[in-house]
Every structure is written in C-alpha cells, then in structure tokens.
Design brief:
heterodimer, A: 917 residues, mainly beta, Maltoporin, Chain A, 22-stranded antiparallel β-barrel, six-stranded mixed beta sheet, B: globular, disordered N terminus, signal (chain A), Plug_dom (chain A), TonB-dep_rcpt-like (chain A), TonB-dependent receptor (chain A), CarboxyPept-like_regulatory (chain A)
C-alpha cells in the first residue's frame, strides 16, 4: 500500500514570484499525480514550473492546479518523498485536460523488503507495519506486532490470558491496579470500523472472583488475541495525536487495513512453543471491477504441552468484497463478513482432585460491515464522501462448575431492603455459574473531504459525523440463587436490563500547506465534539458535548546540502485532547446488597433452624462520571540525510481523571439477637421468631466499590528510530529504535480503608480516608538494534535484532502512611494527625511506610539477541524460522535492599511455512 | 544466683585427618556444654537422662545417654543443631519459709537452632524442673480438617478440642481459656523483640468457658468437648464427626458464623483475626490451656497486649516488621501442646518449660486430613479411671496423626 509513503512527503517550497513576462494568453494548468503501478493518487507532491517559479501542492486526490500560467515550454519538476523526482519538459497550451503525471516509488535496493516499522509524523506520531514486516515477524496474534514499536521488546506470548495493548508504558508497569485506562483508551479500527468492547459485561457480582475477573476484558479494552494478522495489509499504530476522525480514545489508535485485492492462494503453517497456527486465504477477481477475498485462520495454544487442561484456541474467518469503478465519479464499495471464535478451557485434574472444577469460555463473534467511497475528480470543492456502517454480534459464554463451601450462610434472594427470615445454605455443594454475554455493536460514520481556497491556500477540509451503539442482550449471571457459586454475595442481574449506550460525534479538520519562503508548514488541526446519548439525565455526561481539539504541525526546512548529501529537516509539534466515554460496566454497576444476619439459630434439629437478616441496598452508580481525558503534547524532529532517516520524538501525556474502582463506605444499623435469651430447641416445635429474643442495636461499616475518575496517569518520554538504510558493504539494512519512557500512576481521589483489627471485642471502629495508595512511577530505557539482510539470489532474509534494555526501574509514590481523616460509625469525621500514630487505637489507621518503601527498584542492563530467517524455497514456498534469546546477557545484580538477583533467559524458537500459489 | 555446673563437657573430636579430597573437608567442632540448673532448687543428684542432638537440616539425630557426669564424645559437623535434655534428678525445693524438701523430679533443657561452625564452641543450656500440674489436660486437638467424600476440604466447623480431668477430684471448667499461639513453629522470627517467652506466651486468639466458678463441674476421668460448630457434621460430610454432644462451641459473630442454640458459646476474649477462628490445618500454631476467671475481654485486650518487632528476611532482603498480639503469663498456663508440621519445623512457639516438644498430624500432606493429635493413656486406675500421659513433652505424650474420637476417652 502506498498510502503510507504519502505520509513521508516532503514538499519543496519555492519562492513565489508572480511576474508576467510575456503578454501571452494565460491558462490554468491542472492535473493529477499518481503512482505509476497502482494509479493511487500521490498526496502532497510538489509540482513546480521551474522557469516561472510557480507551484502547487497536490491534495488527497493527487490533484494540483497552477493558475495564471502563460502558454509555452517549461521544465516541470515534481517531487515527493518516497518517489523518484520527475524533471521533464512540457509544453503548456490551453485545452490540456486530464493531465497525469506518474511517479515511481523510490526504492533503495532491488526488491527491497521492509521488515521494520516505518515511522511517520503526518497522522500524529505513528508507526506503520506492512505485510512484509508482518510476514517476517511470524506473529500468532496482533500482540506480537507491538515489539516493532519504539520501546517495544519481544515478549514470549502467553495466550491463556487476555492480551491488552500497552502504549508508552514501561514493561514493568502493570495496569492491574490502575484499571486499565491505557488499554481501554486505545481504539482498534479495522477497515475503518471501530472495534468496541463497551458493552462487555462478563464480570461477576463477587469482586473476589478473580479467576473470572482476570480472564475477561470488561472495561479493559480489546483482547489482542482475537485479532488475526494474516489478512492484514498494513497497520498504523498512532501513539501520538490522531486525526479527529478517530474518537472515543485516549491513548492511541490502531488502524488496521486488510487486503481487498486479488492475490494468489496462500497458506501458512506456524509452530512455536505452545502454539500451532494454520491459515489460508485467497483474493480473486470476479470481474474487472470487483474482487473477493477469503481467509481462514486457526490457532491452537497450549500453555504446557504436558497439561492439556489449560488451553486457548481461536478461529477467524473473513470474506471481503470490493467493487471499484474508476470514472469521473469513482466509486469504491467494500463489504466484509467476519467470524471470530475463541475458546479457552481449564479443568482440574480428576486424578488429583476427586471432584472436577470446570471453567470453559466460548466466544463467537460475527461482524458485518460495508463502506462506500465516492470520489469526484472534477468538482472544485467536493472531493470525496465516505460512508461506513458496521454491526457485530458476539456470543460470549463462560461456564464454571466448582465445589462450594457454603459456610452455612443464608440464602439471599430478596431484591428489596428490609428484614427477612431465610434458610441456610448447606455446608458443601456443587455450584454452577453461567455468564452469558451478547454484546451488539453498531457503528456508522460519514465523512467528506472538501477543498476550499482562501488567500491562495489550499484547505483540505474533513467534515464528518459518527454514531455508534452498544448494548448487551445477554442474560448476565445465570445460576440457582439457592445454590450460588459465590455464597453470600449479590443477586444476579440480566445484562439485557441495562440500557444501550449510544454516542455521537461530529468532527471538523483542516489541513493547510503554508509555504513561507523556502520553508513549508503543514498545519493539520481539528476538533471533535463527542456526546453520549440514551443516558439518563441524572448522569453528568447526559447533556454535554466534550470537545477534543487536536493539532499537528510540521515545519519543513528547505533542503540543504552537506558533503554532497541532501539534508532535510522537519520539526513536528502537536497538541491534542482525547476523550473516552465510560463503558456500560462503568456506568451501570449493579446495586450492592448488604445482608447482615441478625439472628442465627442453627439448631441441631434441622426443623428448628432459623435465620433472620436485614438487607440494605446501596446504589454504587456514580452519576458524576466523566469521560476520561488525556492531554498530549508532542515535539519531534525528523532528519533525512541521504538515505539515513531519523525520527526523534518527545511526548508528554497527562490523564488526570482515569477510571478507578475505589472503595466507598456506608453505615448500616441492625439488630443482634441474643439466642441465649430465647427458647431452647427442646421447648419449641417450630423455628423460633425474632420476638422471642432480646436484641442489641448495632452499627457496622459496609464497604462497596464505585467507579470514580480517580486515577492520575502521567506519561513522558522520548522515542527514536534511526534507519541507516541499505549498507552496501554489509548487504544489510541497519536500523535502531527505542525509547526512554516514564509513567506514573497515582490516585487523584481518596479511598476508604478499615484496619483488619479486632479491638475491644469487636471489629475496628473507624474507617480511614486515605489520599494515597500503592501507585508507582516506572521508568525504562531501551534500544533495539536491527540488521536485515536480504540476499535476493538465495531468496533469503536474515534479521538479527539485538534488544538492549539498558535499565528499568520503579518506585512507590511518596506518602506519609497516615489517613487524612477518619470516620466513626455515626458518620462523624475527625482529622488525623501525627500524634494519633501513637494512640493505642488510632495507631492502627497509620500504615507506617517501612524504611525502604520508597527506594527505587532498579534492574540493570539486559540484552537479548533474536534471529529471524526467511528463505524462499522454489517459486511458491517460503520457510521462516526464529530463535529468540539465542544469546543473552543478563548479569546478576544486587538490589538496594541487598537482595541478590540472578536472571535467566531461556531461548525459544518457532518456525513457519508459507505457501503462495 | 546459685549455679551448679554440671561440668558437662562434650568433646567433639575434630577429625582433622582429611579425606583424599582436601577441599571438601567439613569443619567439625569441639563443643563444651554447660548446664545451668534452675534458681529455685538447691542441689541435686543426677539419676539418668538423655541428650538428643538433632541436625536441623538433615533431621539426623544423635542420642547420648547421660550417665552422671560422664558423656561420650561425638563428632559434630558444621550445621545447625537442636539440643534437648531430659532426665531425672533429686533436688531440694525451698519454700517461702526457707524449709527444704527433698524431691524427685524430671529435669529438662532445650536449646534450638544452634549454629556450629567449626572450632571450639561453648554452649549454655538452662535446665528446668518439670512438675505436672494436677489439673485439666488437653486430651485431643482436631485441627487438620476433614475432606468430603468428593475430595474437597470441608471447612465447615468440625474442628474441636477435648479437655480432660486428669485428676482424682472434681474440677470446674469455669473460666478455662484456650489460647492459640501467636508464633508458628514453622516460622522462626528473626530479631524478635521483646522476646519474653520465658514468662509469657504470645497468643493470637483466646476463648474462655463461661461460668461463675462452679457452673461446669467435670468429674474425674471425664472430659469436655469444645467445637467450632456443635452439630452432627456427618449429615453434611460422611467423613466428619458428630459434634452435637459438644459442651461448648466457639462463635465469631452472626454475620460470619452460625450459632447452635443447644450448646453454650465460649466467650471470645480476643482474636487477631476478623474472620472465624479456624485452626491452622497443618498445625502451624500451638495451643495453651489456662485459667482466667476475673478478667473481662475488654481488660484482657488492653492489659495483656503484646506489641513486637522482628525482621522479615528473605535471602539478602531485610524488612522491619511489627505486629500486635496478646500475652498470657506462663504461671497461669495449666497445659500446653506444641504442634507443627515435621518437615517445616523451625522453632518453638513457647517456652520449653510448658511443653518440651511438639506433636503433629501428618506432615503437611493429605494424610493429615481427618486425623487428630491425641494424648496417650498412661495407666488405668483400679476404679477404671484413665490417667493420661502428661509429662509436658508432647512428642512422648501424644499420638500424632491419630484417629479422632471426639467426646470419647479410650482406655488404651
């Protein structure tokens, strides 16, 4: 795909001298610049009539217009980065129509294959990874691709748990404690359609059910395991500030374009530790205008070949259709139908544990999408119109069966507050739980590129609107309430009872190329207005537009020549605001039921047993919930020196109101009946009633969690990629990339905690209000060196990657261990100060930091060397092989605490066979 | 201080003649052991006794008979050792008036985790005279949990203690307290401070039998059963027991526990846990029995509080730690049972004067399920009254991994 090369376009600015030399007829010279082979328009090419210094820059459709030119002979000069510069004689006269200039893609060597991520700064700071690089990388899922980004390193894939994206986050940084704002705020767009998981509601009422909580992506973002890589033509990963066309994101954008072209049959068979992958595909020409693409992919992963009980498998299939008619009004119609299925399962070993615990998860998703693009070559203002519609339906079912120790808690089924008599759960039983999720997503987008001209400036205007819909039609948790899997917590709620969420957005963007002297400034700025629909007016987000202004600025300096080398310099700057609305799980948490047993009369005679409890309901919905908003600043420098290209970029991101599930407290009063004050079982012949007993009034704290805009995340860093191009002597392309990055996770809203202490014959009587938690600051610095050798005669590509993690470190955010204040059971708040840390009772609220709590934990250098080899065998086959950590250097080190750490890195390898017929 | 030195001198012959591979020579120590007799006895003559030296790492034991003052020489290689002395002596007990009485009794001493690193080494062992208190004894503890027929652990309240009147007169259970030790025998704390286990036993949970002093008489040879949930557990789990005949149960609050109306509850004095009291099912904690009638739970919480510091050490990593518990004066303790998991044992949770050793159920493995620790029968009186073995030495007094028999005192 040549679109990306467009991104590299560097425009020569030529001083405007608008003298009329001859009093001849003046004409308007217009035409189109296209790529020779594909006829794709070349955007941002500079077209210059040398003699008169008249110039123009092509728009998105490759069109240019130079007005007021006198007829005659000229030298036409057309240049664009990534293409061979054209210099040819031309005779201009009136009546020239449909003038076309074909540019050839500039290649550095014969049949050079690019196997690195290509950096770009046109659509925000981004990396583009194309088919060849993907092939060479041998990915099993999308997650494997990320190692090509600056700051990325090879990570051994583990497919038994979800894989969430992590952009500009040090490896050590674990989003687990910080509610996954980065992955939740990264948009995945496939062929223009945004993937969503806003309606995923696969969590269970019991927050302690970590087995499930850690195995679903509710409120966390897209599970990259589900994205197959085989039909990907190119992926653009925008870490910087994306166009306002893309919204409902905070951290970044993953823009995947799949192949719609005719292509020969291919098959790929891959094997590496734990996984087997098999995929086939073909793209056929139906007729001159339409093509059909089909592919199928199967992945089977076993965490441990000896243990068949933990595994993951995925099937994806896709049929894509393209109709493309080039004419005065060109029409491109795309339609796709996709299926994704994934299955993971685990069982306890019946040999060891007599009773089987079973966990299985089935995920089936179908997607249907269409897009229509109409572009006009003649209109002076209308360039194109894009309409996209996409709908998906997912059936996500998890089944759990486990032996349960009922703890003889009461069976709770009531849905209202009050005092109730109940029955006891048995001591042990088998519990079943089905989690049924059926999210439906519909998204649509309409956008248009228009051209306008003011003060001799071309405005490329993008106008668009977007609507999307998320709803879950599933039954949610389904279980026998009298034999729950998690005893004593909550009541099931059907997901389909939760309203749908709809979001609209309108966006406007202008791109202006501004020549100042020999310099060129490309300004791309816009604003996106986002709004949530179908949200109850009690919510703060219900009646508000949230605006995301975003600007990217490129300043290209005139080309200079040093030591016979052309040197191009380009400065980049950007500012952007990015908003992401909450998902259904954030907006609609289920009410919390607090059940307090008031009388327990567990007689030895089963017929006389009685339990009486009080239920209090707390609604944890946070009506004040805002979209999370990330503010980004980017500053960069691109240098092109001959064939060497360097991309340097500094960034700072601040997300002040990230989602965080924080502890809240309520006070509940209840009665505690004294069973020794009532009748003995021998004196009654039916269960006793509460009026037979004396009681004491009691109060207790009830804790629940609420989704708050309570996380503060700050990221800053410096990313770099230097591509030295093909070094002839080594027959290799040498490149390096890496990043220094820092990310800090902190609490911006207070949380409640009660010391787990038994004081004065009762639970601890106070709750502390803490303004700190265990957030950390992470830092890392890495460089990956790469040498890619392509020996055409042998059909061999040989890559060596030396991945140096110079260091990484983390340290805990400073705190004094004290709560701000504390609350008693009557709801009174008291200020907590230093003297309370020695009070016999209050000292338990003080969580004294240990002497080394705030020490920096630093891990020194670690180097891994990875090899990848691809070899063409005959005409149709290609065999690839990789070994990661074939050599490594991980010296032992001693931490500040005195801990001696010995590091071991084990090599692992995989191979795959590609067949292209 | 009247110190009588049993000039025990243990010669550890240092075999300096090396093996052919000189480099791997293990240093051997020459060890002198000085035995200090207790302050409150005057003189004594040694009858017989054993010194047991246990290599902590290998578990290897060397038992040496102590014949008077002569001791055999042994080779002791570099390592960590426990030294245990048990013997019998004649001694003069001195009462308040200064009168002396000639007594015959058992004498003991214990020194744990002594690091022997080669060369000459002096070791002091404080001896103490053991005297059995004529009172209740803990006759059985079931801490190991049962498994259901389906094979899942049944954690539903079938743990129990049995207390036995080991005397010939009527005793009252009123005010008897069961305490669980704060320290675990499998987790030796480094730099524990303050460490006053010679006078107090740190506890993490205490439950007391109610009563005004004479409410709960227990006849000689009879026992009382104290369980978690006093029901017939067999109906829930065929591998469990009928505990409906329990005399008392412990209860931790209506929201987390169930209360059986047929059986009176123990008074919860203190607990470090905010959850239900579940005995460690590998026996990591040890248990004491003491009498404390007049102290309210509130007073116990504050007056018997024990705050301690220690160091958490993992490899080269060291953290300062502290924790809160309570302490029970050793004088008040009438019986104590050390418990552990043999392969993980590290130190004693309490003074060896309370219990010289420890017992166990299984070794942390599945064999522990459904098994208890049970006191051996010493002899049976002519009237049929069973006298249980109580030498304050659980390794000797108890049957480890025993078949539980709640409420039943077997005669052999």
């Amino acid at each position: 795909m040549k679109f990306k090369i467009l991104s590299y376009c560097l425009v020569f600015a030529v001083l405007l001298t608008n003298k009329s030399i001859y009093a001849q007829e003046t004409i308007t010279f217009s035409g189109k610049v296209i790529v020779a082979e594909s006829e794709i328009p070349v955007e941002l090419a500079t077209v210059v009539l040398k003699e008169v210094h008249k110039w123009s820059v092509t728009n998105n459709n490759g069109e240019f217009t130079i007005e007021n030119v006198q007829a005659g002979d000229y030298i036409l000069y057309v240049s664009c980065l990534g293409y061979k510069t054209i210099e040819q004689k031309i005779t201009l006269r009136s009546g020239i129509k449909n003038f076309q200039i074909s540019m050839e893609v500039e290649t550095q060597g014969l049949n050079e294959v690019t196997v690195i991520a290509e950096e770009s700064r046109v659509n925000g700071t981004s990396s583009t990874i194309k088919k060849d690089a993907l092939r060479h990388l041998q990915p099993s899922s999308f997650a494997d691709i990320l190692e090509l980004l600056p700051g990325g390193v090879t990570v051994k894939n583990k497919m038994t748990s979800m894989q969430l994206i992590s952009l500009r986050e040090p490896l050590e940084a674990n989003d687990y404690d910080y509610d996954y704002n980065t992955s939740f705020g990264t948009a995945f767009v496939i062929d223009g359609h945004t993937l969503s998981n806003d309606a995923e509601l696969q969590n269970i009422t019991d927050g302690n059910g970590s087995y499930i909580a850690n195995r679903n992506t509710t409120g966390k973002g897209i599970d990259m395991r589900l994205i197959s890589t085989d039909n990907i033509e190119s992926v653009e990963i925008v870490r910087g500030i994306p166009s306002v066309k893309y919204g409902d994101l905070t951290s970044g954008l993953v823009n995947i374009k799949r192949s719609y072209k005719a292509k020969p049959f291919y098959a790929r068979i891959k094997s590496d530790p734990g996984s087997k992958l098999f995929s086939v595909g073909k793209g056929i020409d139906l007729n001159d205008d339409s093509r059909l693409n089909m592919d199928l992919d199967f992945l089977d992963y076993k965490a441990d070949a000896r243990n068949p009980k933990v595994n993951y498998s995925r099937i994806t299939g896709s049929i894509r259709f393209e109709y493309k008619k080039e004419a005065k009004n060109s029409i491109t119609f795309h339609s796709n139908f996709d299926y994704t299925g994934s299955f993971d399962e685990s069982k306890t070993d019946p040999e060891i544990d007599v009773q089987e615990s079973v966990y299985d998860s089935k995920y089936n998703k179908i997607v249907f999408g269409s897009s229509l693009n109409i572009s006009n070559n003649t209109s002076s203002w209308f360039k194109n119109l894009d309409v996209l519609v996409n709908a998906s339906y997912t059936q996500n079912e998890k089944n759990l069966t486990e032996p349960v120790a009922g703890n003889r808690t009461p069976v709770y089924t009531n849905r209202e507050e009050g005092e109730f008599y109940g029955t006891y759960l048995p001591g042990s039983y088998m519990g079943h739980l089905k989690l049924d999720g059926k999210p439906v997503y519909i998204s649509s987008d309409i956008s248009s590129y228009l051209v306008a001209k003011t003060f001799n400036l071309n405005h490329n205007i993008l106008l668009g609107a977007n609507w999307n819909y998320s709803k879950n039609f599933g039954d949610g948790e389904v279980y026998d309430e009298t034999r729950p899997l998690y005893a004593g917590v909550g009541r099931p709620r059907a997901s389909k009872d939760i309203p749908s969420m709809q979001k609209i957005a309108v966006y406007f963007e202008d791109k202006i190329v501004l020549p100042i002297s020999l310099h060129t400034i490309i300004f791309k700025g816009g604003v996106r207005a986002n709004r949530a629909l179908n949200v109850n007016s009690a919510y703060k987000i219900s009646d508000k537009f949230y605006f995301d202004p975003r600007i990217n600025l490129n300043w290209k300096l005139p080309e200079i020549n040093i030591w016979n080398q052309d040197v191009n310099l380009e400065f980049i700057g950007g500012y952007g605001m990015h908003s992401k609305f909450p998902g259904l799980s954030h907006l609609y948490p289920d009410v919390q039921y607090f059940d307090k047993v008031q009388l327990t009369y567990y007689s030895q005679n089963e017929n006389l047993r009685q339990v009486h409890y009080k239920t209090k309901i707390v609604d944890p919905v946070n009506y004040e919930l805002d979209p999370i908003r990330n503010e980004k600043f980017e500053l960069g420098l691109n240098i092109r020196l001959g064939k060497i290209r360097a991309y340097l970029n500094a960034y700072r991101e601040e997300l002040k109101n990230g989602y965080k599930n924080l502890s809240r407290v309520a006070v509940m009063d209840y009665k505690l009946y004294d069973i020794s004050s009532g009748p003995q079982p021998k004196d009654i012949n039916e269960p006793p009633t509460v009026d037979m007993f004396e009681f004491e009034d009691k109060k207790d704290f009830m804790f629940y969690n609420q989704n708050i805009n309570g996380a503060k995340e700050t990221k800053q860093g410096f990313e770099y990629q230097i591509d030295f191009g093909q070094i002839k002597a080594l027959k290799s392309r040498i490149s390096l990339n890496g990043a220094w990055m820092k990310a800090k996770y902190d609490l911006s809203q207070p949380t409640y905690k009660r010391p787990q202490k038994y004081i004065d014959v009762g639970l601890y009587p106070y709750v502390g209000l803490y303004n700190w938690d265990l957030g950390k600051e992470y830092e890392q610095f890495n460089t990956n060196f790469r040498a890619d050798t392509h020996i055409k005669e042998f059909g061999l590509i040989f890559s060596t990657s030396i991945q140096c993690m110079w260091y990484y470190k983390n340290k805990r955010n400073p705190h004094n261990g004290m709560p701000d204040s504390y609350m008693d059971k009557s709801g009174n708040f008291f200020k907590y100060d230093e003297s309370d840390t020695t009070d016999p009772v209050l000292r338990f609220l003080y969580d004294e930091p240990s002497s080394n709590e705030f020490d920096t934990k630093r891990t020194p250098i670690g180097i891994d060397i990875n090899l990848t080899v691809s070899k063409e065998i005959g005409e149709y086959m290609k065999l690839s092989f990789y070994v990661n950590s074939i050599l490594d250097y991980h010296p032992s080190y001693t931490t500040e605490d005195g801990l001696h750490v010995r590091r071991i890195s084990n090599p692992y390898f995989g191979m795959e066979l590609n067949i292209n017929l | 201080m009247k110190k009588l030195i049993f000039g025990l001198s243990l010669l550890m012959v240092v075999s300096l003649f090396s093996c052919s591979d000189d480099d791997n020579e293990i240093p051997v120590s020459y060890l002198t052991i000085q035995l200090n007799t207790p302050d409150d006895i005057e003189t004594s003559s040694f009858y017989f006794g054993d010194l047991t030296v246990t290599n902590v790492n290998s578990g290897e034991e060397i038992v040496m008979e102590l014949n008077g003052f002569e001791y055999p020489a042994i080779d002791l290689e570099e390592g960590i050792y426990n030294f245990l002395i048990a013997g019998e002596i004649d001694y003069y007990a001195v009462n308040a008036d200064g009168n002396k009485t000639l007594m015959h009794g058992a004498i003991r001493g214990l020194k744990e985790n002594v690091s022997i690193e080669g060369g000459e080494f002096g070791l002091d062992i404080d001896l103490f005279v053991y005297s059995s208190k004529s009172d209740f004894v803990i006759s059985e503890i079931f801490f190991a949990d049962t498994k259901t027929p389906e094979g899942d652990p049944y954690l539903e309240g079938d743990q129990y203690f049995e207390l036995y009147n080991n005397t010939s007169k009527v005793l009252y259970a009123d005010g008897l307290c069961i305490g669980e030790t704060e320290f675990q025998t499998v987790d030796k704390l480094v730099d524990l401070s303050p460490d006053n286990r010679n006078e107090f036993t740190p506890v993490r949970a205490v439950y007391r039998i109610p009563g005004n002093g004479t409410d709960y008489p227990v006849q000689p040879g009879e026992s009382i059963l104290i369980s978690d949930i006093a029901i017939n557990h067999i109906s829930d789990n065929a591998n469990s027991f009928d505990l409906s005949g329990s005399d008392f149960e412990w209860f931790d609050g209506a929201d987390i526990d169930v209360d059986v109306p047929e059986v009176p509850n123990m008074i919860k004095m203190v607990s470090a846990s905010t959850s239900v009291w579940h005995l460690h099912n590998r026996g990591y904690n040890s248990y004491i029995l003491f009498r404390m009638n007049d102290v309210t739970p509130e007073a116990f919480t504050s007056d018997y509080a024990y705050h301690y510091d220690y160091k958490f050490v993992f490899g080269d990593l060291v953290f300062d730690m502290d924790n809160d518990a309570w302490e029970v004066p050793n004088d008040a303790i009438i019986d104590a049972v050390g418990c552990s998991t043999p392969s993980e044992y590290q130190w004693k949770a309490m003074s060896p004067t309370l219990d010289l050793t420890w017992t166990h159920s299984g070794d942390g493995d599945d064999t522990r399920y459904g098994k208890s620790v049970k006191r051996k029968v010493s002899y049976v009186e002519a009237d049929g009254r069973v006298v249980l073995m109580d030498t304050n030495n659980s390794a000797v007094d108890f049957i480890p991994t025993a078949m539980p028999s709640p409420g039943v005192i077997e005669t052999e």
